[in-house]
Amino acid sequence: MAKVIIVKKLHKNFGDLQVLRGISCHIAPREVVVVIGPSGSGKSTFLRCLNQLEPATSGEIIINGVSITDPRADINAIRQDVGMVFQRFNLFPHMTALQNVALAPIKVRKLKKAEAEELAMSLLTRVGLRDKADQYPEKLSGGQQQRVAIARALAMQPKVMLFDEPTSALDPEMVGEVLDVIKNLALEGMTMVVVSHEMGFAREVGDRVMFMDEGLIVEEGSPEQLFGSPQNPRTRAFLSKIL
Amino acid sequence: MQFQFEKVFQYWPMILRGVQVTIQLTVVAVAIGTVIGLVTSLLRLSRFKPASLLARCYVDFIRGTPLMVQILLFYYGLPQLLGIKAFDRYFSGVVTLSINSGAYVSEIFRAGIQSIHHGQMEAARSLGMTYFQAMRYVILPQAFKRCIPPLGNEFIAMLKDSSLVSIISLQELMMTGRIIEGHYYRPFETYIVVALLYLFMTTTISQLVSYLERVFGKGDHSKETA
Ligand SMILES: Nc1ncnc2c1ncn2[C@@H]1O[C@H](COP(=O)(O)OP(=O)(O)OP(=O)(O)O)[C@@H](O)[C@H]1O
Ligand SMILES: [Mg+2]
What we know:
The complex is a heterodimer.
Chain A: E1 5-14, E2 17-27, E3 32-36, H1 43-50, E4 58-63, E5 66-67, H2 75-80, E6 82-85, H3 97-107, H4 113-126, H5 142-154, E7 160-164, H6 172-187, E8 191-195, H7 199-205, E9 208-213, E10 216-221, H8 223-228, H9 233-242
Parallel strand pairs in A: 3-8, 3-9, 6-7, 7-8
Antiparallel strand pairs in A: 1-2, 1-4, 4-5, 9-10
Helix pairs in contact in A: 3-4, 3-5, 4-5, 5-6
Chain B: H1 5-9, H2 12-45, H3 49-63, H4 67-82, H5 89-114, H6 118-126, H7 131-161, H8 173-184, H9 187-216, H10 222-225
Helix pairs in contact in B: 2-3, 2-5, 2-7, 2-8, 3-5, 4-5, 5-7, 6-7, 7-9, 8-9
The complex binds adenosine-5'-triphosphate and magnesium ion.
The site of adenosine-5'-triphosphate (ATP) has 11 residues of chain A, from β2 and α1.
């Protein structure tokens, strides 16, 4: 089956600092890949390269058959197919939840305002926030803000969703509501790359877990394999710390 | 000593006319300066090096030289350089003040834009918006709110600094004062009236700005959510 994401020998340097040192991987349609690894190992940078928020230093990234690292690639068009959810939500504070979700469909997909708002309302309903549509982000809890952020990304009807530690800025009691939304997306067949250290979540919805360390994918496998019988000593050392 | 305010108040219509010219000059200069400032701040922040360098030279030149020198350079210097006849005084005053204001306003906008968390730009770009769409719909609306107080200060500064165009005999409030003083040699009475009129205008503006701040400042909680 055609791959949604193909990464070939991806390198990323910040000045002299080599953050990604040759990452290669394939992600199939409907696959949910969970990325784990110590702080500073390059997980966020990897994710940000996947929608070119960080331009790659070398290597190639192909999404849905289009090489996004090609300098001639239409990056704005590609990003519409790749939804991204951030650790700190990054909602637009001067807009209501509904406006947050409807903005890109109006400005980028050129939907009519009414159409976009209808779409936004249905997405907010899907993440359980229909009644919060007219609230500004500051009036929402962290979990609610993150769910609006997910709805906002879904409004562009992406083919892939990237999540960068979507629950690590949340109070523990709100983690569940956000993970539930992501689980539902998995059930609906969304292709996803999720950086997360929520092991229960990784076991339940992850098809594959990748362990990153020092800019490389050190080990990968099914959640049972990777958590149950890790092969690489670095993976074992890391897991013993977080489990 | 005997005050002779009646001599000054004899010229009341002329004084009012001066107040009017001062207000016009300031409003027009700050309005044009805001447009120049917005464009300059965007050029300054752009990744296109020649544009940001050009913007920087402009801002540094204006902020690093006295306004009075700029006025004289424009009014007397430029016609000589270009070999043309003198500009209209009012035209010169408006242009010089606008160019001056533009440099200061651009620094205000630059600070405002930079104060918005970079996660906002990233979130907007990740949705497929272009750089300009992200600026237009996400960054600038938030930045403008934060710029209201410093823009108010710039307005007040420009109102006072506009008095310098009296050097080219543009008859705004300051020049009117100098003319009246020349008639009767009553400098204290003349200039205290002029001063109080400036004070009245500047306090009115600061009231207006704090009102605007209350109205538009609402909903600026970006610091918490960014
Ligand atoms: N824009 C940048 N400029 C310079 N260095 C950067 C930049 N972004 C990331 N880095 C560096 O790259 C390295 C990897 O960062 P990255 O954020 O990808 O790690 P991470 O695995 O996501 O860590 P964490 O678990 O803490 O989020 C770090 O050393 C970081 O300091
Ligand atoms: Mg990270």
